[in-house]
Structure formats: structure tokens, C-alpha cells
Amino acid sequence: MATTSKTATAEAKAACDARLKAARDAGSTKPVACLTWGSKPSAGDRQPAISAWPTPNWCDDHGADNNWYVTRFKACGVFSADLTVHDTRTGRVTGTMHYLAAGYAYSKRDIKAWAYQVELVEVSASGDAVGSSANGRGTCAGKCKVTESKFPSQAVSRNKEAVGQFFFDTTIQARPKGAKGDGQGTARWNFTNPKWAGPSNEITLSLPTVRCDNALPGTSKIGCVMPYIPVMVYAKSGPYPELAKHIQYAQDTKHLPGKYGTTKYLTRLTDKEKIKKNRNKACPSSRHRPAGKQCDEYPFASTWQGASTGGGHFSWRMINATQNEEGGKALGRFYLYNRVLEKDRFLVWIKP
Prior knowledge:
With 352 residues, the chain is an alpha+beta fold. The protein has helices at 6-25, 43-52, 57-60, 241-252, 272-282, 321-337; strands at 32-37, 68-70, 74-86, 93-107, 113-127, 133-142, 144-150, 154-155, 162-170, 180-192, 203-206, 210-213, 223-225, 231-235, 266-267, 293-298, 315-320, 345-351. A hairpin with a 5-residue loop joins strand 4 and strand 5 (113-127). The two termini are 28 Å apart.
């Protein structure tokens, strides 16, 4: 989760002040327009954004609170902003527009690109702010490049929203294997109006950092993820009940790491020899296996918290062999789908 930063707000105000001074120095009599980020909007303010562009349910739940909310492959947020028009000579406010910037971005586990959309929705407008249009562009910093940027000039009113769409590619290459890097896409826009001395200052809304890589075991495809800690889910009423019950015991009774809702994370281990040592320490061949049973260890052998690499704090239990094998395969799919790399953090949620 990330907010519109204090730095961005301060920069917007400084740009506004500079534009007013420049207009005065030039002897202009036309108004000057300024964009700034606003305070957290009310529920009533947010209604136009909901009506104009329904955001995903997981984003709607949080409201327009000037924050980004992310899953592993999506980001969403609704932000409050203001357009203020000033008389050049006196600085008196001659018009205002309160508007919302709704942002939505998505990536995929097996492609090297991600997309970002911004929609500007008017909440209220008055005076010299009425009849304004917005236009913008997309930029990207870090291991990325802009492949498409569409934000042409569009009128903004209670009946019309301005939409910008941007697409980014990582500059990570398919070879050599093991590369990873971060990219941060940013939407930038300003407002124009024939009544003003010129366009407003430019304001920016940056996405949370996107990580792309070609370092995932089991695939050669590049993929990109958002900064969200993924959660592996097992259920006591699911296909691996004995496995789920063992993990719950290990987390709740032995207080081992990885429990959902805590910050005691598990981190992935990909070194095959270290994984083998973890497994052999927790479940040596000397442990008797009853018929149809296998030895299950927690934390998983494929984590740095495992029996050997984790300092010797672990739990073991004989469980149904099929459940142990299939539950382990499910964990492997979880790693692959969520692009869980070496030392990436994750949690385990045991549902009823």
C-alpha cells in the first residue's frame, strides 16, 4: 500500500507558486491554474467515481482514501485532487474543481508487460475551472520502458471523465537466467482552459513498484508481480486435511513462523542440496513410516526456515502419503503461479 507522497504534494504547490509569479512578471491578466493533491474525500465525494468507473470489489472496500491497494498482479486506488484557479494580480481564487483520480494497474505471471489506467472524475466545479480539459502522458523509471501512452486532451465534467492508458515493458532480458529488476510507472497530467494564461502545472501519480524477472525455477518466461506478499491456503476441510492440521499445530502450538495474519514470514529456498538437508533433518530415513503414511515437515523444506537452514526449530508428523505428496505439489504450483523467487516472503493460511 502506498499513498500520494508529501513530496509530490509539496512539488505541486511549489509549481503552482512559480506559475503565479511567472504570470505576474510577464504582466498577464489571465488567471493561473494550479493542481494539488487533496485530503481524504468524503463518501459523498466518492460517489461520482463509483458511478463513472466501478473499481474492483477489493479496492471498493477501502474507499477513496488516497492509497494504493495491491494484490500479486493488480493495483487499485482512488485519490483526491484539486484544481484551483487564481487571479494573477491578487491571487484570489476565481474557480475550483474537486476531482478524483482512479488508478488501476495489472500485470501477468508470464508476460513482460503491465498496464496502467487513470480516470479523472469531477466531483464539483465552479467559476473559471468550469469547462477545463485534461491531457497527460506516461513515464517509467527503473528496469522498464513505455511502449504505449494514450492520454489525449479530454473535457472533464460531471458527465464526462478523462481517461489515460499506459503500457510498460520490462527491460529484463530472457538471458542470462536469474535476472530481476524493478520498474515504476507514473501517470502525469495537467489541465487546460481557454480562459487561463496557460496550462496548469503537471501532477503525477506513481504506481507501486513492479518487479519483473526471468529467475523463477520451472519456467523460462519473464513475468511481473506487484509488491504483495502472497498467501498459500490449505483447508482442514479440503483435499489435504492431515497436512493442514499439522501446519496449524506447528503454527499455533509450536509457534513456528508463516502464520497468516502475522509478520513472521516464510522465505523461499531454491537450492536443491539445502532443501534435501532440511528434509533429511526433519524426516530422516530412520523414522518409521507406518503403511500409507509419509513424514511431513514444517516449516517446509523449501524455505529458509526449514529444519536445517532455520536453526533446528521445526515440527514433523506422519500423515497420509497421498495428501503429503499432493499438498507438496500444490505448494509448487503456488510458487510458480505467484512467481515466488529465492528469499521471497510468503505466509500460510489454514482455513477451517
